[in-house]
Amino acid sequence: MRVLLVGGGGREHALALGLAGDPSVEAVIAAPGNPGIAALAEVRAVNPTDPSAVAGLAVEVGADLVVIGPEAPLVAGVADAVRAKGIPVFGPSAEAARLEGSKTFAKEIMTAAGVPTARAHTCTDAASTAEALDDFGPPYVVKDDGLAAGKGVVVTEDRAAALRHAQDCGRVVIEEYLAGPEVSLFVVTDGEAALPLLPAQDFKRVGDGDTGPNTGGMGAYAPLPWAPAGLVDEVMADVVHPTLAEMRRRGTPFAGLLYVGLALTAAGPRVIEFNARFGDPETQVVLAMLETPLAGLLHAAATGTLAAHPPLRWRDGAAVTVVVAADGYPAAPRTGDVITGADRPGVIHAGTARRAADGALLSAGGRVLCGTATGPDLAAARDAAYALVRGVELAGSHHRTDIAAAAVEGRITIPN
Ligand code: AMP
Fold first, then answer.
1. Is 366 a residue whose pLDDT tops 90?
2. Is residue 150 pLDDT above 60, yes or no?
């Protein structure tokens, strides 16, 4: 199989590792890729959000499968353009990707499907915003209605800050605060059949102890030793299958990766958000645990044959990833600094670039790279991931020091 992978972040580096490790894959072509991906794939320049450019590239490279990593190309209709060329594509149509592209649409689907989620109001002016904030009370949850790379959400006790964020965004969804540990569940689906991957947890806040602003994600681990038995079955029955059925009923089936972000509240699991693609950095840990060949799985979802796919196999133990972020991230990341120590197995590139003059590796984004490791248990995987991070030098960089710590120490509890 020849696979064209669209995207160039840490998630795509993890996907490239999984695809290249599948014995049925003859070549991975990544567009635009990054320096880490370039070590295992041919990289091609493309504007990832230009549907006809990506579809043209898929034809040119003779792709048997196109895998779309990020959300922006999906919302722009890249999967539709590739499918129109008769090439199997892993990623939903633009219509179906609205589950991520519009928080209001996602709430509409959840309501219609009876999926448990936070109560919410969509607001576009100061008066309705103030009313919604007072309806729910603090902590206030204010979400940009459109795509915001994980940074459009403000959770705060400060009513003035909540109002300001709403005003900056224009159209927002204001919702009830959900208290309880968070779980990310990835589900591979062809629109009807659906296979859950291992549940993972990520760390959204920039600072230790979940302090500071939200980010795209500062680390992750899988599996979750504290998750209740039966959680995945419950979420498949109460969330995933009703959502997929509602999307089919509307004539816009969702095929690809349905990312279910949940809070495990005293009242049971509640959906915080849907995404229409693999999450970053959870992909790094979930795929590190997957033993089943990745390309075959994604091809089955892309061709409507997932019901016939064998059950997934997982490695024993656990995986942890720790993100190294640039100075100033998330507010104003500094780029262009030299990175050393990154050319080692387990170091996954996210925002990196090669300097043309001498090939030096430079920081080129907010989340620069991550150290990903597996181990016989969570503590061992965590120690190995931090050993990788300690070997990387990047001026001014920062990382959280408590990734997976609460789980290792048995400090995560579900409210009752
Ligand atoms: P989202 O982009 O919707 O995943 O939101 C980013 C982060 O904000 C989530 O991972 C949660 O930590 C937090 N968050 C979002 N919605 C809620 C909510 N209703 N209650 C509590 N925390 C939330």
1. yes
2. no
